[in-house]
Amino acid sequence: MNPTEHKTYFKNFTRLFSGNLLGQLLPFIFAPIVARIYAPADMAVQENFLTLVSLIGIVAMGRFEIAVVLEKNEDRLKVLLKLCALVLAGFVLFSTLFSVFPSWIVQFFKSEEIIFHLRFLPLSIVAFGLLNLLTQWLLHQGKFSSISASRIIQSFIQNAGYAFFGYIGFGVKGMLFAWIAGAILPVIVLGIPMLRTILSDGWPKAEIKEMAVHHKDFPMVNSLHAFTDILATQFLLFGIISHQYGVTALGLFALTNRYLKAPLVLISGALSQLYYSEASGFIHQSRSVKPIYIRTLKMMLMVLLPFALVIFFFGEDLFTWYLGPKWKDAGTITVYFIPLLVTNFICSCVSTTPVLMKQQKTAYVFSIVGYALGLGVLFISSVYKVEFKSALLIYSLGMSLFYIVLSSWYFQLISKFENQVISAK
């Protein structure tokens, strides 16, 4: 990377980071209020619903939205956006089945309260899908400041809404309304040009079909990968905890997971988006992406190591002081997350490497093995009546091993591409 590219890299990173920083600070600002209004069981209802939204929403566009950054031709981009909209419409119709037939979801999560939430599942899928598409479209346009604005709008509306609706007595329903509003508003404020592009110039069937075939790996491989990720790390994981340890344990786990990851997501999210955008450009120029890859990992580690030390020594006290006495147990289990957090976020900031290197099928196989390992050890621990905290530690160590192996594979892909570039010259 020459000096100009270094300067551009850090300028774009700063724009993304600043938005992610404020977006992730807002939950912490409202956390003392929200945590004192809602009980762990309330959090469990909200998290179970959002897990279902994520499970469907992550594949609601067939993952075609990720290809938006890769399409450099504006006419083809329009076709791709229309394809995304059509696939989203199909998944929204599919999601209505959960509203009409909610019984198996209620039984799976052991929660009658989720029935009300399921009525809003189709609208939630629309909001989730369009917000993801907006992010990719803004990345394509190079509007990094707008991505930051989107994050801030979403975070403020959702977290302020949680506090407001809870204060006036709406309970868990208020959390639902706040989440939907926070997901829809950025699309309305920033996504009108994108929506106009989708609705303009008709719907050319032949071109849309050709585009779907051209990017077939995204729905056939990447979507399965993403779906499996949510299925394993949220849906099945939450289901095991709910069934084996109860909804209160799930509420504690969900809150711990949320607030531990939030500070790291603001760094990882910005780095991941920037890495994908910059590395894609380097690949088009037949240049090695290893400098960007190594720089991304170094910046992530600079944040991870101090954070892990603070959590290890002060996690329980911080949670109890900040969120209130009823969340003391959430603070206690934070220490058990440290190995998983460190290895997970190292991988997450460069997780698009298999997409860039066209190795999505192999990445999917890796994920299946890793998730089977993590869920397997947690389930076996619960069957043998292992204490919840100890079971989480076993799960954390098992998944850490998986992420270490995965990181090694990413580096091999980067090195192989570098060798190809050198050979071509």
Please tell me about this protein's structure.
By secondary structure, this protein is mostly helical. The protein has one domain (3-424). It is built from 18 helices and no strands. It has helices at 3-37, 40-57, 74-100, 103-109, 114-118, 121-141, 144-167, 172-190, 192-199, 205-214, 217-245, 247-284, 290-323, 328-332, 338-348, 353-356, 360-383, 388-424. Helix 1 runs parallel beside helix 7, helix 11 runs antiparallel to helix 12 (247-284) and helix 17 (360-383) packs antiparallel against helix 18 (388-424).
Q: How would you summarize the topology of this molecule?
A:
Layout: H1 3-37, H2 40-57, H3 74-100, H4 103-109, H5 114-118, H6 121-141, H7 144-167, H8 172-190, H9 192-199, H10 205-214, H11 217-245, H12 247-284, H13 290-323, H14 328-332, H15 338-348, H16 353-356, H17 360-383, H18 388-424
Keywords:
425 residues, globular
How is this structure best summarized?
The chain contains 18 helices and no strands.
Structural class per helix/strand content? Answer: mainly alpha
Radius of gyration: 21 Å
Share of helix, binned: over 70%
Total separate domains: 1
Topology as a string of helices (H) and strands (E): HHHHHHHHHHHHHHHHHH
Distance between the termini: 17 Å
**Which regions are unreliable across 5 or more consecutive residues at pLDDT < 50?**
none
